[in-house]
Each structure stands twice: as structure tokens, then as C-alpha cells.
Specification:
Shape: elongated
Number of helices: 6
Oligomer: single chain
Order of helices and strands: EEEEEHHHEEHEHH
Strand order of the largest sheet: 3-2-1-4-5
CATH topology of the largest domain: OB fold (Dihydrolipoamide Acetyltransferase, E2P)
CATH architecture of the largest domain: Beta Barrel
Largest sheet: 5 strands, antiparallel
CATH class of the largest domain: Mainly Beta
Length: about 200
């Protein structure tokens, strides 16, 4: 079984509770002496086995193998990956069974992380999640004052559109953002726009 490590919580001196996103579920597993194992790192993709606990406590994480990506040794990309992975843990923490969409989204992002600008990968994957969950908002009205939007718009968390003056935030060209929402590609956005959208996405879903 394969899964991405979304969080690690130390128990006692050296044991750990590991939260994993697998293809079909969010799993919390116990790892004896987990703090000793460098293979257990936030954001890593691992192959593993699950051993049920006879005591009824959390199942155990066993026979762990790390599945690496070339960008893991590039500090800036790894730091951004950690931030990206954390929004999945916060968003999915109250669920157990999942469709493969979320695992596949992270897996595709990890594969693209080396050859593409990772800020653009974050933005495009974030939009794909909002679309999948039916949470993309239209640009007809400001979410705050409910009046019509102009040519410049700002975005709140979850990319909810609003007037710049209503939320005191930086603004974007409305046409470019609408195109981004429609096609899910950041190709026509400038790097500074992508970075601003990425920073917003990392605040959570």
C-alpha cells in the first residue's frame, strides 16, 4: 500500500502517530520508535503495510519503504511541498474513506514538482480541488457586500472573489482570474500573480 505522510506526532519519547493519505482513505497508524527512522518525514511517499493491533489501539505501520522524488534535496521546493501537504491534512482530517482523487492529486503534483514551477503546480491543483468539490464561486457579486464586481478583483480563502476595498487585499485582473478558474491552467498569469495565489492557497481549503 502506498501513501503520503501528512503529519507526524510524537508519542512518548520515540514512538509516533503517522497520518497517511492513501488512495482510498486517511489513515492514522502507530509506529514504534518512529522518531528513530529518517524515512518518516512530512510529505514523503511511502510503501507500507498495516498490522492490526490486538489491543484495539491504532493499527501499526510496518515494513516502510520510501519512494523518492529528485526534488526532495532542493530545500526551497521541499519547504513549499511541506506547506502544500499540510493543507490536505487540515482539509481531510475528519474523514476516513476517500475517493482516489486526493491521492492522485498529490501524486501528480509530486511528479510535476521537479520540471515545473511548484507555485504554479500548487495553484492548478488547488483549483482542481475546488472544482472537484463544487466550491468555485462565480464572479457576479462580491462575497462581502454582494454588489457587482468590477475589472479588478481580490480573492479570499478558497479563492472566493470580493472587491479589493472590501477585504483590503491585493487585486487581480478579473478576466485573467476568470480564465484561470475556467481552464485550471496558470499559463497566462504572471509569476507575481501566481506567487500571490499560491500564498493564498497555502492558507488552506
Amino acid at each position: 500500500m502506498k501513501g503520503f505522510i501528512l503529519s507526524l506526532r510524537r508519542v512518548g519519547n520515540e514512538d509516533m502517530i503517522v497520518t497517511l493519505l492513501s488512495e482510498k482513505s486517511l489513515m492514522r497508524l502507530y509506529r514504534f520508535y518512529g522518531a528513530r527512522h529518517s524515512i518518516l518525514q512530512l510529505g514523503y511517499l511511502i510503501d507500507f503495510e498495516v498490522e492490526e493491533s490486538a489491543s484495539g489501539f491504532l493499527p501499526r505501520l510496518r515494513h516502510v519503504t520510501h519512494i523518492g522524488f529528485p526534488w526532495l534535496y532542493r530545500r526551497n521546493r521541499l519547504a513549499l511541498w511541506h506547506s502544500f501537504v499540510k493543507i490536505f491534512e487540515a482539509h481531510l482530517r475528519d474523514t476516513e474513506e476517500l475517493e482516489p482523487f486526493y491521492f492522485d492529486t498529490l501524486l501528480d503534483a509530486a511528479r510535476r514538482w521537479e520540471r515545473q514551477n511548484p507555485h504554479r503546480v500548487v495553484c492548478e491543483k488547488y483549483i482542481s480541488i475546488l472544482k472537484h468539490e463544487g466550491r468555485l464561486h462565480s464572479f457576479e457579486r462580491c462575497y462581502i457586500c454582494e454588489k457587482g464586481l468590477g475589472e479588478r478583483v481580490s480573492l479570499m480563502r478558497a479563492f472566493i472573489p470580493a472587491h479589493p476595498e472590501c477585504i483590503y487585499a491585493s487585486s487581480f485582473d478579473r478576466g485573467k482570474i476568470e480564465d484561470f478558474f475556467e481552464c485550471g491552467k496558470s499559463t497566462w498569469l504572471e509569476d507575481d500573480e501566481v506567487e500571490a495565489l499560491c500564498n493564498l492557497a497555502l492558507k488552506g481549503l
